[in-house]
Amino acid sequence: MEIDIRSASDIGIAVRAARKAQRLRQDDAAGSIGVSESFLGKLEKGAQSVQWGKLFQVLDGLGVRVIVDVPDEAGELFAGEEVKRYARVGRAEKRRRAREDADES
To answer: 51 and 17: one domain?
Structure first.
């Protein structure tokens, strides 16, 4: 089911609904996802300031997908930027492995 998200409050409602649909208590869900119960509570209440990484960790943990509908022109630019980002991440990972290998020697 697709839900139109327009605010932090809407995300909170979606997270709470997904958790409750799985019959999970807040503390159990937080523990299994790897975030604090406090963070999950703030998220469900629609806190205006949350950590993006943890937000997506919770969404993934509850099986919630995020789809962004952008104009076609922006989609084309996004695809190009995404390729560049993955290339940067790949280079950074290669450097990290090289440093670890050098440290082990």
So the answer is: yes
